Amino acid sequence: TLYRRFPDRGALITAAAHSYLSALSDLAATAEREAPTPFEALTRFLRACAELRLGALAAAIEPTLHADIKADPALAEVRATITDRIARLTTQAHDDGTLRPDVTSADIGRLMTLQIYATPDEPYPTAVNRVLDLLLDGLRP
Fold first, then answer.
1. Which residues of 21-55 are buried (b: 16+ CB within 10 A; e: fewer)?
2. Which of 1.10.3720.10, 1.10.357.10, 3.40.50.1820, 3.40.50.620 is the CATH number of 2-139?
3. Does the chain have fewer CB atoms within 10 Å around its N or its C terminus?
């Protein structure tokens, strides 16, 4: 039944990646639209990425598949949208003095896939909040 919807493995991967990247773009757009400042938008976006466990997902994608997704022209537009949003928020946070000047949009991209460990006796959201509180304090000037 899967191949009734997708002609081959590549089409399935492209569709799944497009869905994932579109959702990520929507998260960034919502954070940008609703947060009162660019730094708070970056904060909200990074928290959402951590809560969704994007780091675990990124680690699960084998390097070859990840390279294929990055090279897929059908995904270029949605990837560019995410990159542009992060770059714009980073620049705006620099401009208003709330983000360390040496932090780049590429750094924010790396932080999107941060893997957070929760001890067995600790709820995952508690671990996320603690790690991100420490991390975000380190991003401030």
1. beebbebbeebbeebeebbbbbbbbbbbbbeebbb
2. 1.10.357.10
3. N
